[in-house]
TrEMBL record:
SMART domains: HTH_MARR. It comes from Actinomycetospora chlora. This is MarR family transcriptional regulator. Residues 11-147 form the HTH marR-type domain.
Length: 159
């Protein structure tokens, strides 16, 4: 493997800045969601994905793929949300071994109330304080890194 290629000062500053921004932004948005709506960031993600489907329901494995969550994490979180009346899990009518996760009326009411506030928070914290060029750069960076991660996960990337 050879000697490590340590980050230089500029690279380390960029990397540490990205990590700190990610943590700070997630904490800020989660705190706002909890305070205003009683939802965690994870609750919001689940409800948002369900609310974007035509009938408010999806198979758990599809939801897990959308969220990038492991099966165990998804199952435990859905259980907590189910106990709070935000979602239901029922047998899949076409596959008796499978399940369907469905947004409840209470879950729909909460996501519809939370979404405008969440978007306002995203604008207040990030979007409205970046130039058009910075937004383009941020989008391009995200797309580049995600494509590289997908390639690494598939084992197609060069070492």
């Amino acid at each position: 493997m050879g000697e490590p290629r340590w980050l230089d000062e500029r690279e380390a500053r960029a990397w540490r800045g990205l990590m700190a921004m990610q943590v700070d932004l997630a904490e800020f948005l989660d705190r706002r969601l909890r305070t205003r709506c009683g939802l965690s960031g994870a609750d919001y993600e689940v409800l948002a994905h369900l609310s974007e489907t035509p009938d408010g329901c999806v198979r758990p494995f599809v939801l897990g793929r959308y969220l990038g969550w492991e099966k165990g994490r998804l199952s435990q979180h859905l259980g907590r949300m189910e106990r709070r009346g935000l979602v239901t899990r029922d047998r899949c009518p076409t596959d008796q071994r499978g399940a369907i996760v469905t947004l409840t009326p209470r879950g729909r009411d909460l996501i519809e109330a939370a979404a405008p506030q969440h978007v306002a928070d995203v604008r207040e914290a990030v979007v409205d304080h970046l130039t058009a060029a910075e937004l383009e750069a941020l989008a391009a960076i995200g797309e580049t890194v995600r494509a590289r991660l997908a390639a690494l996960d598939e084992g197609r990337a060069e070492p």
